[in-house]
Amino acid sequence: MDPLSSLPVTPAKPNAWALTPLWVFLIAYLAVSVLAGDFYKMPITVAFVLASVVAVLMSKGGTITDKIESFCKGAADGNIMLMVLIFILAGAFAQTTQDMGAVDSTVNLTLRLLPQNLLVPGIFVAACFVSLSVGTSVGTIVALTPVAAGIADKTGVATALITAAVVGGAMFGDNLSFISDTTIVATRTQGCRMKDKFRTNFRIVMPFAVLTVLLYFFIGKNAAGTYEPGPVNWLLVLPYIAVLAAAVTGMHVMAVLLGGTVLAGLIGLLTGSFDAWGWTGAMGAGINGMGELIVVTILAGGMLEMIRLNGGFAWIIQKMTARTKSVRGAELSIAGLVGFANLCTANNTIALIMAGPIAKEIAARFKIPANRSASLLDITSCFVQGIIPYGAQLLMAAGLANISPIAIMQYLYYPYLLGIGVLTAACFGWPHKGPRAGEKKKPA
Fold first, then answer.
1. pLDDT tens column, 120-137
2. pTM, whole model, 2 decimals?
């Protein structure tokens, strides 16, 4: 069982000026990126450093040493540090499985299971399975888009259509996988267990995943092709199966990732995929690959703590809930908050890190269960990330398929349906499970 923690209650009076560091970040990252025409021109770490410096300098009360100590306390919050440790283990697991050939075997397995007269819906299902296994939408897109583009060339299916099926399936796993960054951040910031969030999240999105399969079936039912998947080594797929099974049982995510990394490493040694030094090198490369995310998480934790102490969170909550009299309004506020953050950062993990603490306080005020607020956060972030043409997912898919991100957007049925799913869940309290929490109670 995950150790649960919660953020302290906001002690300061509402203060709009406390949000200045957030505006500094938005100007340094979003405005500069728009002017440069490239959302990856300005390193997000630099933008957070600038915002963090402003957060410390403008904070009221105490010496500069006191302010820095307050920043460090926020950066070293138990939730932040736990996320950092999970990111480290997730990076080690992902790169170990990549180097020992698990990703290739998983892709080949899913392609072998596809009926060739159901290519487009089959590619979507394959992307769902791969992303759910590997926990990364970008990794799934990198693995499957070249295959999908090749199938399009052989069958005459529109490249944009089949590429969109890959992107949609990739966002399915990004939203639900136990080892996805977004799942980790959403559950940790809201203080709930992964399996509880998964169950709630699954019930909300699964009908729309099925609907997506049907849409792709009717649109691409005339497609047929002759592609030959590579060989499948079932032993190499075992780490993913083991991780999924262990996570579903409720085992602590750190134990799941550590066990998965050890299992993948032992299989890699047994099959000769790498030697002992190759294994340690893979783990090191995976951990290093998480470096930017770890730095951003720490800086964001410190910056958000300074905003909280100076009343910024209290002001946002006051304004967002001033006319909110129901759980429905609170849930829509949570979704709108992370959606806006995602549009600004073009990174759903970072958006969740920024919006999570505020969403936690809104959820507590309106008695929204933590697993539900985590689900709404994660689903909304994946909806926005899956449709913005300047996000890494669409840019990567478009580059690999040699088409425009705009061409892909018209076929992104699953991400669009995720947006409908969030609105449906918030407006109608769906999925229903007894009386809606907090519905008959006034906010504290």
1. 898 899 889 888 887 878
2. 0.71
